[in-house]
Design goal:
The protein is mostly helical. The chain contains 6 helices and no strands.
Length: 191
């Protein structure tokens, strides 16, 4: 049986800088996941369908990066390429959610510690996550040309995921305007 060589980066370890950036991306995704769960469980906010899509993309990102970092010998560029469509999808939905909020089509509750709204916080952490995933992908010294091609395809796939999620999201139900937006979740403004 042939021995499979271990993939090593310039420091002799798997990936070096890229590995650190990928681990930081995982930590960022875990913070995003904790934040979104805290909004629902800790703050008892009702999540709208767009919030659920963003949460699902973050959960999938945690799974890909977390499990991938546990696998011996996997190139970090591969992990980042696999996470890329998920991060782009989550960011695209978050941007659309913020657009609806900014144009007055949705009212959304304040996020954790009332630093912006929940969709604004999601967009901000997705931007950080996207930067980490892209830089981790591009700094992997074991990256192959195919990783770049597949990464571009991942960007496109993420936008398509977001488009599908946004187009298939159920209509926002008529809310109970007798309760504050924090208890009602994202809702259409009162006409």
């Amino acid at each position: 049986m042939a021995e499979v060589p271990e993939i090593a980066g310039p420091t002799g370890a798997r990936g070096g800088l890229s590995m650190g950036l990928t681990a930081l991306a995982l930590l960022t995704a875990l913070v995003a996941l904790a934040g979104t769960l805290y909004l629902s469980i800790g703050m008892e906010l009702k999540a709208c369908p767009l919030c659920f899509y963003q949460r699902t993309f973050v959960m999938a990102t945690v799974a890909v990066l977390g499990l991938g970092l546990l696998l011996p010998g996997i190139r970090t560029s591969v992990l980042n390429v696999l996470a890329l469509p998920l991060v782009v999808g989550g960011l695209s939905v978050a941007i659309f959610h913020c657009y609806l909020e900014a144009t007055g089509r949705l009212e959304c509750p304040a996020g954790v510690l009332a630093i912006g709204s929940a969709p604004q916080q999601s967009a901000a952490i997705h931007v950080i996550l996207l930067a980490l995933v892209i830089v981790g992908w591009l700094t992997d010294h074991n990256r192959r040309t195919a990783d770049l091609v597949v990464g571009v395809a991942g960007l496109i796939l993420g936008v398509l995921f977001a488009f599908g999620g946004i187009r298939s999201a159920p209509k926002t139900p008529v809310p109970d305007y007798s309760v504050p937006v924090n208890e009602d979740g994202c809702r259409k403004p009162k006409s």
